[in-house]
Specification:
- The protein is built from nine helices and seven strands, in the order βαβαβαβαβααβαααβ.
- It has a single domain (about 10-235), classed as NAD(P)-binding Rossmann-like Domain (Rossmann fold), CATH 3.40.50.
- It has helices at about 20-30, 40-50, 65-80, 105-130, 140-145, 150-170, 190-195, 195-205, 215-225; strands at about 10-15, 35-40, 55-60, 85, 135-140, 175-185, 235-240.
- Strand 4, helix 4 and strand 5 (about 135-140) form a beta-alpha-beta unit.
- It has a seven-stranded parallel β-sheet, sandwiched between helices.
- The structure holds nicotinamide-adenine-dinucleotide.
- Nicotinamide-adenine-dinucleotide binds near residues 88, 89 and 187.
């Protein structure tokens, strides 16, 4: 097998300017895919684009029209869309119980994490259906399966992503397009640099391997999920939790 695993494939990776999204984008690109990064951080986009040759598009995932236009630009420019990974996301407030959690913050976190997942999936699927092949991967979180206290916006948004994966996966199960999720426990990325130490401790203590996961470990599993080989799984949320998740 001389051909690279993603030769001829076109991928969109949101949040591709940092952390897990960046790791996935780099690996897809290294394995032959043409990659477009959607991120709202211009400096991050410039850095990853210049290092990898990926196309960087400044897109706010909470802006439906921007996401729609971004997908259109990718399909126009590259002629197809095979892979869509949603890794853009924010933690929002931490160590804050619901009674003190501002409603505006709840709306902001849902607008990015949950509505962003909805927009990407909604606009990525039509070109995939046209070609009879596609892979959608939404990065959820163990917080969406178990619920992390003090992080109501984040936990709720990720639980929503889990439900979305399960529902949409079934919608296109017979048409060559798979929709799956990935639910990591804590992965060492810039996202946790802002997380309160006591919140991080709470999460790490619950991981039987007693360590954080790595971006490379996340990218390895994510890239398998969006590969041609992963053909008989859809509507499923994969675990990446060092043994924490039991279902
Ligand atoms: N790091 C972890 O421990 C962990 C655990 C579970 C799930 N996750 C999820 O994995 C995904 C990636 O997390 P990460 O750790 O790589 O974070 P990160 O902060 O390193 O990267 C997130 C990227 O998303 C971008 N982004 C944020 N809001 C955006 C918006 N509105 N529009 C476009 N881009 C936006 C940021 O600019 C950044 O480049 C997130 O969905 C996160 O919730 C992370």
């Amino acid at each position: 097998m001389d051909e690279k695993r993603f030769s001829g494939k076109v991928a969109v990776v949101t949040g591709g300017g940092s952390g897990i999204g960046e790791g996935i984008a780099r690996r897809l690109q290294a394995e032959g895919a043409q990659v477009a990064l959607f991120d709202r951080d211009s400096a991050a986009l410039d850095r990853v684009s210049s290092e990898t040759g990926a196309l960087g598009l400044n897109i706010d995932m909470s802006d439906e029209r921007a996401v729609e236009a971004g997908i259109e630009a990718v399909v126009d420019g590259f002629g197809r869309l095979d892979i869509a990974v949603n890794s853009a996301g924010v933690v929002g407030m931490t160590s804050t119980n619901i009674v003190d959690y501002p409603t505006e913050e709840f709306q902001r976190v849902l607008a990015i994490n949950l509505f962003g997942s909805f927009y990407l999936t909604k606009y990525a699927i039509p070109p995939m259906l046209q070609q009879g092949y596609g892979r959608v991967l939404l990065i959820a979180s163990i917080a969406g399966k178990e619920g992390n206290p003090g992080m109501i916006g984040y936990s709720t948004s990720k639980a929503g992503v889990v439900g979305m994966v399960k529902a949409v996966g079934k919608e296109y199960a017979e048409r060559g397009v798979t929709v799956n999720g990935l639910a990591p426990a804590v992965i060492r990325t810039p996202m946790n640099e802002k997380t309160a130490p006591e919140q991080l401790k709470y999460m790490t203590e619950r991981i039987p391997m007693k360590r954080l996961g790595t971006v490379e470990e996340a990218a390895a599993l994510a890239c398998w999920i969006v590969s041609e080989e992963a053909a008989f799984t859809t509507g499923f949320v994969f675990d990446l939790s060092g043994g924490r998740a039991t279902y």
